[in-house]
Amino acid sequence: MPGMARKIVSVLSLAVLGLVLFPALSAVPAHALSAHVRCVQEQLNASGYREGPVDGRLGDPTRAALGLFARDNGLEIDSDVSSDTAVTWCRRIGLTDPALRAFWPSARRPVDLSIAPDVPRDIAARIEATLVPEMQSLSALLGLELAATDEVIVVRNDTWRIALPRMQALRGANDNPFFAEAMERHCTGINRLGGWTVSGLTILCLRDDAVLGESLSERDLRHALRHEALHLIQHQVSALRVRRINETPGWDPHEVPIWMAEGTAVILEGRYPAQSAVNTIDRRLIGTFDDRDWPNLRQLETRHGLKIDYDGVYLGGAVAVSYLIARHGGYPALGQLYERVGEGRRFDNAFADVFGLSLAGFYEEFAALGNTPG
Ligand SMILES: [Zn+2]
Can you give the residue range of the structural domain that contains 293? Predict the structure, then answer.
């Protein structure tokens, strides 16, 4: 079914992309990550482990207090608090005591949504009405509580550059050309809607000719929203470390493999029946590989995998996640996997704990699945 596969991929590639915002946003220097550090500080203060200003700055006193809190509450501390992991620490601290969750940014607002004024009203209204419920349904499916207030920016492709400073500020990578290149690539591609997510921020970029119900179907809009929302959840729960933006081949064993990150997003978009039928592997997905090489997941752990087998990352990842859900614990197991990675566990160790088989063993099972008649 090469036609089907192509269609899926063309819609998905839209799911990778990017961008931007209005003058008001670009003028906001506030580091969203500091909100997560403040969350950590507030909870440590409230629980008596720290007495200090809630200033969003990571210093030795905050680190020391967190170390004590973690020790006393049985939290593994092999994930140091940093700008990358503050969001997961904010969450982990609150999970130890319901009273502390009042300090979670999500207690005030689950999402900060900004929509550029030139986005068609009906599309804007649909996003406004469905974004939060979609995030809530995804987190419930995975058995995860969300602590952070993520940011979603919706723009049109002629204005995406305005959002660049926002993304760079969030990532603390002011001069990294990767962001501009990636955003331009996704925002000016062939799809009607592109999405790109980094920690704490999703940018949805609409083509100028996107018309809801015509060139942009309601279904594809929903899937794109859910895909990127799932990435936001991955980031805040696991400090998602698929961030080898230089596409170096080496894989940090603490990172979530890109086949897993994207495969999870594809499955949870709602595009495949695995959404409701968790006891069966989606044979349609497997069928997309009838006339192409079965993906070698081991080679698709870093972003480099996107260069050597782009479809393998998305579709092969989706088959793999479908398989794991069906055979090894359902959606909650998937949620637990991301939580353990957020605790600083090596991915392969977390994987073995949650699914009951080694990552290497899974790769063998997956390879065999490709040889099984559908
Ligand atoms: Zn994605």
Answer: 247-369
pLDDT of residue 154 exceeding 60, the answer is: yes
**With bands split at pLDDT 50, 70 and 90, how would you rate the model's confidence at 177?**
low
- Examine the domain organization and report whether 69 and 174 are in the same domain: no
* Ligand 1 mean position, distance from CA 172 (Å): 21
Question: Are 307 and 332 members of one domain?
Answer: yes
Q: Which among 203, 238, 273 is the end of a domain?
A: 238
**CA 315 to ligand 1 centroid distance, Å:** 11
Alpha-carbon gap, residue 223 to 238, rounded angstroms: 22
Distance 54 CA to ligand 1 centre (A): 34
pTM (2 decimals)?
0.84
Question: How many of the other CB atoms lie within 10 Å of CB of 261?
Answer: 24
Q: Check residue 10 and give its pLDDT.
A: 29
Alpha-carbon span 99 to 355, nearest angstrom: 31
- 71 CA → ligand 1 middle, Å: 35
